[in-house]
Amino acid sequence: MDHLASTDLNSPEANPAAQQSFMSDFADATHALLMADTPSARADAALRLADLGRPLASPYLIAALGDSAWEVRQAAAESLGRIGDSEAIAPLQNLLDDGNQDALLQQTISQAIDAIAARGVPVTTTRVSVTSPVISSFEPDEDSASTISANDA
Predict the structure, then answer these.
(1) C-alpha of 32 from chain center
(2) What is the value of pTM for the model shown?
């Protein structure tokens, strides 16, 4: 009975309908974050992922730290801080160390790092990466081909 009392019946793990809703919301938000035409739509998608509150969104948000639009980077940093996944600390710190950000974005990044660290979750050294399908279709140029054939000989 104690186990049932501590289970949130609205959580995706306990309720199939909630799980279906979560997966739909997650798919919609990640798609928008990666594919939306406008920076405001991508930033909104980053914040929607934070609202879902699952570390599953972290690789997508970490990738969004490299978006060309400052508002997307801002929303991604804020969202990573809200989710609290320790995997995000190194990419956030790298962006902060880059120094090419405005003062508001630097503050948001610092706050995100502090929020993650405050959770007391041990920081891991595993790197998370999101691989683009474009990379898998890469065709080497002539210089690469000669290097590859020389190495294969």
Answers:
(1) 13
(2) 0.69
